[in-house]
Amino acid sequence: MYDVLADTGVLVVHGMATEDHVAAVRGELAPYLEEAAAQPDDPDAFYPGLTRRLTALMHRSPMARELMMHPVVEALGERHLGPNCKTWTLNVSAALEVGPGARDQALHREEDLYPFFELPRPNLILASMWAMSDFTVDNGGTQVVPGSHRWPAGRVAEDHEIVRADMPVGSVLFWLGGVLHGAGANVTTDDWRYGMILTYNLSFLRQEENQHVSIPLADALQLPEDVQARLGFAQDNGDGLGFFDPRPVLGT
Ligand SMILES: O=C(O)CCC(=O)C(=O)O
Disulfide-capable partner of 140 in 13, 98, 131, 157 (CB 3.0 to 4.6 Å)? Predict the structure, then answer.
């Protein structure tokens, strides 16, 4: 498991979530996703149209928080991010539905958020895509380019180097943050491909999704300490990074 991810930059693990757990997450997010209308496509936009997106999942779905802390994720984070930091944090949470007619998303790297580091970079991000419905090569299964985490800047993927995630509901596609990837096209099916992306970054880097605004402090402080820490509501293992004092202002 560890070597496959290190060597190819990509790994699929089946059976990570039960169908009941997937249904529970979907149920918790459904009222929010219903309001996330799919837009027509703009061919120049980074996000393809005919898709539905929802963020701030860790505030909205207690069952998704359990998946964020899955032991396999913890083990992969320890191995692939652990050597480069004291701890790691949730970087992004999003539910991503790819609807009929959606085009391929342009290939990109999660770690392009941090251009200070030259390619190929040390591991800064571990990404996971949870299959909340079956993923196929035709219905929008995520495109990934194995090995591209080791490519120099400027190398462009050729069609034969791109593979598309084909995995049953409850599986997870993992990839390292240097791997080229993007949502797949869904032009021949009537499916709504439903994925939940959770990415994790080294905790001394800024989180792409601002958890401190997405999750009110009073709610965050009710969560178990390990969950708070993964969300970034903790000081880095005893050093000064991220220190805080949650006591209220005197007299309030
Ligand atoms: O939906 C997917 O399969 C990938 C999504 C993605 O890479 C993105 O939204 O940046």
Answer: 98
Q: Give residue 142's pLDDT band: very low, low, confident or very high (50, 70, 90).
A: very high
The residue whose CA is least distant from atom 6 of ligand 1 is 182
Taking the centre of ligand 1 as the mean of its atom positions, its distance from the CA of residue 137, in whole angstroms, is 14
The CA-atom distances, in angstroms, between 55 and each of 91, 193, 209, 233 are 11, 17, 8, 18
Q: Whose CA is nearest to atom 8 of ligand 1?
A: 182
141 CA closest ligand 1 atom index: 3
CA 183 – ligand 1 centroid, Å: 4
Strand order in the sheet with 163-164: 163-164, 143-144, 181-182
Q: Are 11 and 181 in contact (CB under 8 A)?
A: no
Ligand 1: nearest atom to the Cα of 142 = 3
Whether the CB of 183 sits within 6 Å of ligand 1: yes
What is the share, in percent, of the chain residues with pLDDT greater than 90?
Answer: 85
Which CATH code, of 1.20.1600.10, 2.60.120.620, 3.40.640.10, 1.20.1250.20, is assigned to 2-231?
A: 2.60.120.620
Asked if 31 and 52 count as a contact pair (C-beta separation under 8 A), the reply is no
Q: Whose CA is nearest to atom 2 of ligand 1?
A: 183
pLDDT tens column, 223-249: 999 999 999 998 776 678 888 887 878
